[in-house]
Amino acid sequence: MIDRLRFLITRAKGFDLPSVLRRARLAAQQHDRWTAVVFADMLWSAAFRNTAFNDYFELDFAMLTRAERRTFMTSPLSNHLAVRHDDPAYTDLFLDKIKFNRTFAPYLRREWLDLSEAGPAELEAFGAKHPIIIGKMPTGQAGNGVERYVSSEVADWAQLHHELVEKGQLLVEENITQHPVLAELCAGTVNTTRVNTFFDGEKVHLLSWAQKFGRGEVSDQPISGGFYTMLDENGHSYGAGHTGKNTNRFDVHPESGVSIVDFQLPLADELKALVDVVARVVPQVPYVGWDFVIGPDGPLVLEGNWVPGIYEHKPSVTGIRTGTRARFERATAK
Q: What is the CA radius of gyration of the chain?
């Protein structure tokens, strides 16, 4: 209860009335309802039903019954699970990408540098091996602080090292080669698979998973134009892709024309096997949202998030009016 009160207080401090009204107006237009009714419902849902304003808008709650809404995971619910189960003494292993890389080194399957330790000569040698390198802020989130660099275009490696350090991009990684099925969809972006898991001390529960698709940028996050589709137990798409942020619907990828509705995740069983391994590495943080990449000959782990983001069905796009909350509650009930 105390954790929930703290969460509500934090949300209240950041209350942005114009932003909430804008979401209410859009939701009302999309679902043919009165703006005042939607606005009041959003406030009530935030105060009493663990539903952030973004959740209400992105999950199409304006078109769902109260019973249907209760089947969906929301941001506050995910936050409560993380606070309840994840030991804060170990969450830095997930918040800091450099610490994460050290902890999960056997499962990365890519080379990387820590520029707080590696100098310009080491960066140049790294660039000589890898045509494309990725600079990352160790604590960046949602694709922020990630940039792509072409090694052949670098004239002065000492200058690039200085620029990377100045920008806080202390983590440098080789560019990942993805499976041909994913490259066919969007070769310009490494398309990641989000897997939310819970380790109960004995069994690793796969709570939900989704395939994300980029639009040619270095990141497949929505801020870079990315979108996603939820996957069924076999790794097959549930239907059209969406961003959650608006009414966009992607039956095919906008650039490649490859079907999203018919998408089948390659090497799905191999990914499940890797999930079962990595989710046990830090048992003190049992609730994690993982990002994986399917490589040509197997999956690799990209990063983990100790407060998993919300990936759910979007009823207005897929027609699916129930969410994944029941699986989360069953797995975390102990």
A: 21
Phi, psi at residue 106, to the nearest 5°? -65, -15
Both tokens of 272, joined, read: 């499940």
d(Cα 179, Cα 263) in Å, to the nearest integer? 13
- Type of residue at 24: A
Rounded average pLDDT per 10-residue block, the chain, 334 residues: 50 70 88 93 94 93 96 96 97 97 97 97 97 92 80 96 96 96 93 97 97 87 87 97 81 95 98 98 98 97 93 93 96 87
Say which amino acid occupies 175: N
Stated pTM of the model: 0.90
State the Cα–Cα distance between residues 258 and 186, nearest whole angstrom.
9
DSSP assignment of 260-318 equals STT-B-TTHHHHHHHHHHHTTT-TT--EEEEEEEEETTEEEEEEEESSPPP----HHHH
Edge to edge, the sheet with strand 193-199 lists 227-230, 204-213, 193-199, 287-295, 298-305
**Rounded to whole angstroms, how far apart are CA atoms 157 and 162?**
9
d(CA 185, CA 253): 7
Where are the extended beta strands (E) located within 188-245?
Answer: 193-199, 204-213, 227-230
Spatial separation of the C-alpha atoms in residues 246 and 15, rounded to whole Å: 21
| The token pair that represents 316 in the structure block | 């207005």
Structure tokens at 304: 């983990």
One-letter amino acid at 77 equals L
Q: How far apart are CA 4 and CA 8, in angstroms?
A: 6
